[in-house]
Amino acid sequence: MTIEFQVEGMSCQHCVAAVTNAIREQDAAAQVKVDLASGRVAVDSAQSADALKAAIDEAGYTVVDAH
């Protein structure tokens, strides 16, 4: 299942790596695509949206929308 998040606080490639790594800690097989310019993160994962959102939040970023 693919879930899209709007994430605030990402400003560089380090941020992209931090968000990607946080998601992959929840699901090592997750496919993660981050568009830094728009703040969109698309995740193809078996994990719930809530679990993925929590992982992004714990990495220090703010999810403002998920669908």
UniProtKB/TrEMBL annotation:
Which superkingdom heads the taxonomic lineage of this protein's source?
Bacteria
Coiled-coil ranges per UniProt:
none
**Listed SUPFAM superfamilies:** HMA, heavy metal-associated domain (SSF55008)
Establish whether keyword Cell membrane is in the entry. no
User: Any idea which UniProt keywords this protein has?
Assistant: Metal-binding
Ranges annotated as spanning the membrane: none
The record places domain HMA at 1-64
Q: Name one GO biological process term.
A: copper ion transport
Protein name listed in UniProt: Copper chaperone
